[in-house]
Automatic annotation (TrEMBL), chain A:
Assigned EC number: 3.6.5.2
Listed PROSITE patterns: RAB, RAS, RHO
Protein's cellular compartments: Early endosome
Gene3D superfamilies: P-loop containing nucleotide triphosphate hydrolases
Name of the protein in question: small monomeric GTPase
TrEMBL record, chain B:
Top-rank taxon: Eukaryota
UniProt keyword Transit peptide present: no
Pfam families (UniProt xref): PH, RabGAP-TBC
Coiled-coil blocks: 418-452, 501-549
Keywords: Coiled coil, GTPase activation
Coiled coil found in the keyword field: yes
Bias (Polar residues) ranges: 56-68, 192-204, 243-279, 294-304, 476-488
Domain spans labelled PH: 77-176
Organism from which the protein derives: Magallana gigas
Protein name (database record): TBC1 domain family member 2B
Segments crossing the lipid bilayer: none
Length: 213, 983
């Protein structure tokens, strides 16, 4: 909607720095996580998107003023039994989008649980965005905008209602995350597996990763 | 289509129409002492023959040849096989052996084996370019025939002529249908979208099934040779096909036709002698005589024709006649006492008849000669035409070289065939001359006989007088038999003559059959030639087009090079625009090529045989349209060349399976090493259903019987009645998200969706502790492509409950996670380079391989590749998953080593599955390169990591419980823990 598709500019074409961030999508099954990613990465929408098993990995680059931000996106599976795998994916992520379906109250409840888990288990500085997807189905709305907005403010989350179908707010939410991410010092590469994320160690790792140069 | 041989419909027809000629002929086939080899197999053969003959008789009965289409071997289930003798020339030695022959429809080859259960054929004969011939003069080998193929002669021998004719006709038919198929494979705009597959629609797809109308047309042009000798009908059918085949090459056909008609009507007159109506209208006095003679015996003959007449299909009208004559003699002997004069008269009559016979035979011979002369003309014409064709062909271009060679070979074969036919004709002529002489000598004999008869008559008159006087003197009854003795002697002499005549007639009819066969052979060959010509023309057109395109591209290319060579001075923009113009052109012309390919190989269709949308533009991280296009082209070309390369290999593999399944004949598969090797090299499409079914039965074993035959139906009805199944919500969400780009699962009303729902719901009721796990949907959907709904359910049960370790799809997915760690260890062991490279860039391969294991590789992997894995997986078990996972990494090892950063590596891992296109290569790696691959090691590793993962999960679960209970603000808390709790 904002008319700004993820710019595809080759590495190094811009004068600014390049940052690389790991972003994870979480949320109940069929809320539209994969659809959001597909819209963001390829600008497409499929009526029937293959359900995600395990997780899917995609990348997309956006340009922000003088910075190029590379997103390393992990789109996870929504079914509950896959939740035991989730830590593998959100470990070391600098950003997360927790998605719910505005036509389904249950998915909002599940989203809240994810927010809690992320705040507790993921990197301390993780940027979390809440996306109320399928906003094109406003006539079937079950989760009020205000309710979600209030919850997001309370937990200092980014919040937008999106629609992968109409592309509304899809790029915007990714851009908003990109803006909020610390670009001068943070945004290093996914700082490897062992243990949780230690912010202090990030600065020393800067050189080996391909982040802001 | 009504092309099933010996179908129910046909049997009814036989009962109705052919009671008189009936099955007797066939019975004699079995009893024939000539028949060789295994009796039971022989019987099988005769059965096919039986239905074949029935088929023909039905045709005869209606007098129209429309039924011939029934014999098209389009129905693949009619397998042509049987025992035959084959004579091979080993130097001066001729070795005659009994072999099992089986015709393979796939490549139109006749394979022969030592026995029917053998896997490897002893040899093969290419039927697609073969010509057939048999020589009726070889009476010692009535079933002998020749197949000439690829410049080699094969002498085969069937137990008798009937079987031989059956073989020949079947082979002709199959050669024709093969040619049709070959033709239709290439004919333009023939979209060959196969109807469907396996469980989704019962109709088996057969790529390249010939167009229906076309087939019909073909058949009307070349009819079967009626094997039973009902002359009238044969003439009718002959007329029909004569008039229906409007071939320009048959210039002489109308005159030929009338000639044949003449001959036929001659014959017909005789064969119909039993019918008064015909005779009364016939001007021939001899016919009148015949009726007189035949009157008493007629009722008899028609009454008990049932005893076996004579073997073979040549149940000629002559034969009937012969029986009649023989019978009349038998009857006459005891009855002869009342009037000796009558006897004489009768004899005289017989002689007259004989004379008549002779003259008619003479006529016949003349007609034959005429026919042969005409044939020669025709053959000459054909040869001329062939020669001109040949000259034409020579002018063709370079690019057609390959094809030309083939065509040349074919033409030479044709020529050879024609000359041999010619020789045959000369031979026949000679025979006829001989026959003529024989007839002449016979005539002499008859005059001699007449003289003798006269003399005897006188004697008889004298004797009668004597007898009369004697009788008058004393009433002694014993004196009467006396004069009968010379009569008997005479009849003996007469008998040998008739036998001679019969033999000659037999010969005649045999030659007639041969003549007809050769005529048909010529027609067939002609047609084949025409087809090839068409194909040739089409291909040259195609070639010209492609060449034009190529030249165009080349010119553009040169133009570009030229442009680039010139030092750019006067502004870069001009060459820049030219290049961009050329690039867009390249992409454009590529689209054209797509269309071209569409009707060139008809593989440009929307869906593959499994119903998947064909796609070539894989995700590759390339956004430049030109590079994308180039990649797409490269992929296409490798696919095409791979296909061409593997064709032979695949064919022999196919034949191997065909034989195995034929030998198996519905028995449960035995898990032998041999079968294992065959499964590892892939189960052909048409046998997947059987093999997969057998494999799942093997894994489930007796448990299935314990659950009863209605278990599945009960589960389905249970799941339909109660909608509150916790799994059903997720299943509904996933049905259309399972294989969205397969047409069987594309929309709500696609046939697969309903089956998929039933199978998944049934499973969730069958095993509530697992219920439904995302990933199972893909497994079930793939099974349903090949198996029926119920069998698919059992196969799913076999995979999840038996083949996969416990806890793979359960609420915690413990075993699935543990297996990823096992795999990591194995990669470390087998491919240390890759492992350390991934380690270096901190890429966790298990994030990508998890899906492979959970979905049995139905995850962005080419379908041919994962189907091969499935074959082995279902046969051998879950170890195969590790084999292939390791093989995948080995396959792309170099690609991985080239990637030098985390992002690139992660991205490559994501699309890695798509790269595994060479099934043969990856299977080779999985089953050989990675060896040794002991199951024990895997089992112990599984054990170890299972415990490890269990511990970690318990910890995570504790944290989560804490987390949610502390801030129990949300209402949805319950159902979350409910699903995720560890027991
Ligand atoms: N109307 C509407 N439908 C949407 C929208 N986004 C997704 N969908 C539909 O919702 C369904 C589920 O979308 P997915 O993207 O597969 O959901 P997911 O969250 O990835 O699901 P899992 O892979 O099972 O975790 C699909 O059929 C989409 O077509 C949206 O913005 N509007
Ligand atoms: Mg998804």
């Amino acid at each position: 909607m904002a008319g700004r598709t993820g710019a595809q500019r080759p590495n190094g074409a811009t004068q600014g720095k390049i940052c690389q961030f790991k972003l994870v999508l979480l949320g109940e099954s069929a809320v539209g996580k994969s659809s959001l990613v597909l819209r963001f990465v390829k600008g497409q929408f499929h009526e029937y998107q293959e359900s995600t098993i395990g997780a899917a990995f995609l990348t997309q680059t956006v340009c922000l003023d003088d910075t190029t931000v590379k997103f390393e996106i992990w789109d996870t599976a929504g079914q509950e039994r896959y939740h035991s795998l989730a830590p593998m994916y959100y470990r070391g992520a600098q950003a997360a989008i927790v998605v719910y379906d505005i036509t389904n109250q249950d998915t909002f409840g599940r989203a809240k649980n994810w927010v809690k888990e992320l705040q507790r288990q993921a990197s301390p500085n993780i940027v979390i965005a809440l996306a109320g997807n399928k906003s094109d189905l406003a006539q079937k709305r079950m989760v009020e905008y205000e309710e979600a907005q209030a919850y997001a403010e309370e937990n200092s989350l980014l919040f937008m209602e999106t629609s992968a179908k109409t592309a509304m707010n899809v790029n915007d939410i990714f851009l908003a995350i990109a803006k909020k991410l610390p670009k001068n010092e943070g945004g290093g590469p996914a700082p490897s597996r062992p243990g949780g994320v230690n912010l202090n160690s990030q600065q020393t790792q800067q050189s080996e990763g391909g982040c802001c140069k | 289509m009504d092309e099933e041989e010996g179908g129910d419909k046909m049997k009814v027809g036989v009962q109705g129409t052919s009671a008189d000629i009936g099955d007797n002929n066939i019975n004699t086939d079995c009893d024939d002492p000539m028949s060789t080899g295994d009796i039971s197999v022989q019987m099988e053969h005769v059965e096919t023959l039986n239905s074949k003959i029935d088929d023909n008789q039905q045709t005869d009965g209606s007098g129209v040849t429309k039924k011939t289409s029934a014999a098209l071997p389009d129905s693949k289930d009619s397998k042509l096989c049987g025992w035959l003798h084959i004579t091979t020339n080993k130097g001066p030695l001729k070795i005659n052996r009994l072999r099992w022959f089986a015709y393979s429809d796939t490549n139109s080859r006749l394979y022969f084996y030592r026995n029917p259960h053998d896997f490897l054929p002893l040899g093969e004969i290419d039927i697609s370019h073969a010509t057939f011939y048999f020589d009726p003069s070889k009476t010692d080998k009535p079933g002998g025939f020749e197949i000439r193929s690829e410049n080699k002669d094969y002498y085969l021998e069937a137990p008798d002529r009937a079987v031989m004719m059956f073989w020949l006709q079947e082979l002709q038919k199959r050669r024709r249908s093969h040619a049709t198929q070959r033709n239709s494979d290439f004919l333009p705009y023939k979209s060959q979208r196969p109807s469907s597959i396996g469980g989704l629609s019962q109709a088996k797809s057969r790529a390249g099934a010939p167009d229906q109308c076309e087939t019909k047309k073909d058949n009307s042009e070349i009819p079967e040779i009626p094997t039973s000798e009902n002359m009238g009908v044969r003439r009718a059918s002959l007329d029909e096909w004569r008039s229906s085949s409007g071939k320009p090459s048959l210039l002489t056909q109308s005159s030929l036709k009338s000639d044949i008609q003449d001959v036929m009507s001659n014959i017909k007159k005789q064969s119909n002698q039993g019918r008064r109506s015909v005779i009364s209208s016939s001007p021939s006095p001899s016919a009148e005589d015949w009726t007189l003679l035949d009157q008493p015996s007629r009722q008899r003959t028609s009454g008990d024709l049932s005893p076996p007449i004579r073997s073979g299909k040549i149940v000629t009208a002559f034969n009937k006649l012969k029986v009649g004559v023989r019978r009349s003699k038998q009857i006459d002997e005891p009855v002869c006492q009342p009037g000796v004069c009558f006897k004489c008269k009768q004899l005289q009559n017989e002689v007259c008849v004989l004379q008549e016979e002779q003259s008619s035979t003479e006529d016949e011979l003349l007609a034959h000669r005429e026919i042969i002369r005409l044939h020669q003309k025709e053959v000459d014409y054909l040869r001329r035409e062939l020669q001109t064709r040949f000259a034409e062909t020579e002018q063709s271009e370079d690019g057609l070289h390959q094809m030309l060679k083939e065509r040349d070979k074919h033409i030479v074969e044709l020529e050879y065939c024609l000359t041999s036919a010619n020789e045959e004709k000369a031979h026949a002529l000679q025979k006829q001359r001989m026959l003529e002489e024989e007839v002449k000598s016979l005539k002499d004999q008859v005059t001699m006989l007449q003289h003798m008869l006269q003399a005897k008559d006188e004697v008889i008159v004298k004797l009668t007088n004597d007898m009369y006087e004697l009788e008058k003197n004393n009433n002694d009854p014993h004196s009467s038999p006396k004069p009968s003795s010379p009569t008997i002697r005479k009849s003996v002499v007469f008998d040998t003559d008739t036998r001679e005549l019969e033999k000659l007639r037999d010969m005649c009819s045999a030659y007639e059959l041969q003549h007809k066969f050769l005529t048909k052979e010529i027609l067939e060959l002609n047609e084949l030639r025409q087809r090839d010509n068409e194909q040739h023309k089409h291909l040259s057109m195609e070639n010209a087009k492609l060449e034009a395109k190529y030249l165009q591209t080349k010119s553009k290319y040169l133009y570009l090079l030229q442009e680039m060579k010139q030092p750019v001075r006067d502004g870069e923009s001009s060459s820049q625009t030219i290049i961009s113009q050329l690039l867009t052109d390249a992409i454009q012309s590529d689209d054209d090529l797509d269309e071209q390919e569409h009707f060139l190989t008809s593989s440009g269709q929307e869906y593959d045989i499994y119903g998947f949308v064909k796609k070539y533009d894989f995700e590759s991280g390339e956004f430049d349209p030109v590079t994308l296009e180039a990649q797409k082209l490269e992929r296409k070309s490798t696919e095409m060349s791979d296909k061409a390369k593997r064709q032979d290999e695949e064919l022999s593999h196919q034949v191997k399976w065909e034989n195995y399944m034929m030998a198996q004949a519905g028995k449960p598969l035995v898990r032998s090493q041999e079968l294992k090797a065959m499964v590892r090299s892939g189960v052909p499409h048409e046998y997947k259903e059987v093999v997969w079914k057998e494999c799942s039965n093997f894994h489930i074993g007796a448990d299935r019987d314990k659950l009863g035959p209605h278990y599945y139906k009960q589960l389905v009805s249970k799941s339909n009645s109660s909608s509150h199944d916790p799994s059903s919500k997720q299943i509904e969400l996933d049905l259309l998200r399972t294989l969205p780009n397969n047409r069987h699962y594309a929309t709500v009303d696609s046939p697969g969706i309903c089956k998929l729902r039933n199978v998944l719901l049934a499973y969730s009721w069958h095993n509530p502790s697992i219920g439904y796990c995302q990933g199972m949907n893909r497994i079930a959907a793939i099974i349903l492509l090949f198996l029926s709904e119920e069998e698919a359910f059992w196969c799913l049960v076999a995979i999840i409950d038996y083949i996969m370790p416990a806890d793979y799809y359960s609420k915690t997915m413990l075993a699935a996670q543990a297996d990823q760690r096992v795999l990591k260890d194995l990669i470390q062991e087998k491919l240390p380079r890759v492992a350390s490279h991934l380690e270096q860039y901190s890429v966790d391969l298990s994030l990508f391989t998890f899906n492979w294991f959970l979905t049995v590789f139905v995850d962005n992997i080419p379908i041919e590749t994962f189907l091969r894995i499935w074959d082995a997986f279902l046969f051998e078990g879950s170890k195969v998953l590790f084999r292939f996972a390791v093989a995948f990494f080995k396959y792309v090892e170099e690609d991985i080593m080239r990637k030098k950063n985390t992002l690139e590596l992660n991205h490559f891992m994501r699309i890695m599955g798509e790269k595994i296109t060479d099934v043969q290569r990856v299977a080779q790696i999985a089953f050989h390169t990675v060896n040794p691959f002991p199951m024990r090691g895997i089992a112990s590793k599984r054990q170890f990591y299972l415990l490890q993962v269990k511990g970690e999960l318990a910890e995570l679960d504790k944290i989560r419980k804490d987390l949610y209970s502390k801030h129990s603000l949300t209402k949805t808390h319950e159902d979350f823990s409910d699903d995720d709790l560890l027991d």
